[in-house]
Amino acid sequence: MDSKKIRYVLLLVAGIVLVIAGGFVIRERWAGILIGLGAGLFGMSGAHLIAQGGVERNPSLKKKMSIEESDERNISINNYAKAKAFDFFQFLALPFFLILVLADVRLWVVLLAITVYVADFAVYLWFLNKKMQDK
Fold first, then answer.
1. What torsion, rounded to 10 degrees, do the Cα atoms 33, 34, 35, 39 define?
2. Which of 15, 26, 96, 97 is most exposed by smallest CB count within 10 Å?
3. pTM of the predicted model as reported, rounded to 2 decimal places
4. What is the pLDDT of residues 78-93, one digit of tens each?
């Protein structure tokens, strides 16, 4: 087994453990969080293991996927989509913060959301600066 497969098997087991632990937690809020996180880990890792198994059984598909992953056009399209998603997030973030404040959400939740926003923008500026220096 390669390291990716081992990682996904461990995540699958962790997901199952979290779902079971969530079933035994008395507080409803924590039970929902544990079950949701466990189900997400279980589904993600299960899907990756199934996809990886299908690719391993089909060498022509593996070769085609390898070529498509390194194709410059596909990389460019993927980067364009990521840039548009970032722009869309920037548009939605400020109204989201306003809604959090108007909904009288706890201060630490609002500050955490703003921290994520600022961190996202800081990463953007770091990569922009790095790219500008490469020219």
1. 100
2. 26
3. 0.57
4. 889 998 998 888 888 8
